[in-house]
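Person: Please work through this fold.
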Amino acid sequence: MNKELEHNFVELLEKHQNIVHKVCRLYTNNYDAHNDLFQEITIQLWRAYPKFRGEAKFSTWMYRIGLNTAITLYRKSKRTIKTQDFEGIAFKIKAEDYDDTEEQQLKILYKAIHQLNDIEKALVFLYLEDKDYREISETLGISEVNARVKMNRIKTKLKTILNS
């Protein structure tokens, strides 16, 4: 490959690498698995980059490749990928008047999200990233109407999980 193509890819990857890290956090449960998935997604992005035509935003294309790679590996593994224990996080900064209500609610929400299937997780992830239904549909390769219907069903499913 030519140097300009390589330079452009590296520049775009560095600018948008948080997308890949977010996908990795969603589908892995430890540091090594995160790094392995990050590397695999990067490889897949590099392989696909020469075919990137710019019809969608680079970030949308990156979400699509990243999620598809994670989902493919998730399906191949045929195992449940669990989240990292929240208590296992090394840093905890608390102010004197710290209220952890929101933190506890997020913990419960993410525990519920991890009970969803791989496609549902991807849809919720993009929704929580404030992507509109057009961008979600482009990223996941489904129609906008289908994305809306699926999201409504997922919301109902999450309410059921959270209320049980």
Q: What stands out?
A: Residues 18 and 120 are 21 Å apart (CA to CA). Residues 3-163 form one domain.
